[in-house]
Amino acid sequence: MSFIITVYVREGIVMASDSRLTLNTETQDGNNRKQNIAVGMSDSNYKTFLAPNNVGISTCGAADIKGVPIAGFIESFINEQLQTTAIPINLIPDKILAFFKQFTPPPEAQFHVAGYLKENSKDEQHVWLVDVARNHKQKVNPNDKQGAQWGGEGDIMARLIQPVAVLDEKGSIKDKMPLFPIPFAFFTLQDAIDFSIFSVQSTINAIRFEPRPKTVGGSIDVLVIKPTEALWVQRKELHA
Which residues have C-beta within 8 Å of that of residue 94, sequence separation ≥ 6? Predict the structure, then answer.
């Protein structure tokens, strides 16, 4: 699994992701087979990509296809399907579905696709959620609304922003804790960057201390997309 987040504000779009690659493995112990859950394989996995026409693509869910990290397949998709012509962003979700549904079985992978489309002489933001296994696509950002969309191990962030109450022994609400909703409507682009990093890092930190598979970790990649440019705020690089 992973944690990816896309935050969209008036100034631009921010996409962020962690870098951990985990696999489930099996070992033979005499006549018994033992399954090892979420074995950490790498903290240098790429989950956010910059495609032509300033389009960002992030992935979570399945880490591999037939034993090969999914990042390589995403790079192949970008090189083979998006390099020749400027593909409008609203057509890219269908291309992702067609590309990854050719595998048997289709990977249990989800994607965020984000960028801009020129509509009526205006640069309109597009943020799409694509679920390959369910053959589903959906535009998730309302027009002229600021907000955030995340995927993968999202339970930690959900607990941070959802109402919390203490229940009595009968299961009735005993005490409600104060709730301070995140004011996405007032976010600047820098706020969106900071919140994206906070969300990924908080998930990493919480999972570290919880007795659960360590499926989110490593460095955080952050991509910013504006109508006329895209830039990496931070991204891990190859090194000796």
Answer: 137
SS3 assignment, position 212: coil
What's the token pair of residue 91?
């057509």
Contact 87, 79 (CB under 8 A): no
Report domain extents, the chain.
Answer: 3-234
Residue type, 237: E
Here the tokens at position 206 are 């919480």
Running DSSP on this structure, what letter comes out for residue 156?
A: H
Select 3-234's CATH number: 3.10.105.10, 3.30.750.44, 3.60.20.10, 3.40.50.720: 3.60.20.10
Cut 0.85: pTM above it: yes
From first to last of the 240 residues of the chain, give the pLDDT tens digit. 799 999 999 999 999 999 999 876 666 667 777 666 666 778 999 999 999 999 999 999 998 898 899 999 999 999 999 987 789 999 999 999 999 999 999 999 999 999 999 988 899 999 999 999 999 999 999 888 999 999 999 999 999 998 888 888 888 888 888 889 999 999 999 999 999 999 999 999 999 999 999 999 999 999 999 999 999 999 999 999
Are 188 and 12 a contacting pair, CB within 8 Å?
no
Are residues 97 and 76 in contact, defined by beta-carbon separation less than 8 angstroms? no
Would the CA dihedral through 59, 63, 69, 73 be positive or negative? Answer: negative
Q: What single letter denotes the amino acid at residue 201? A: Q
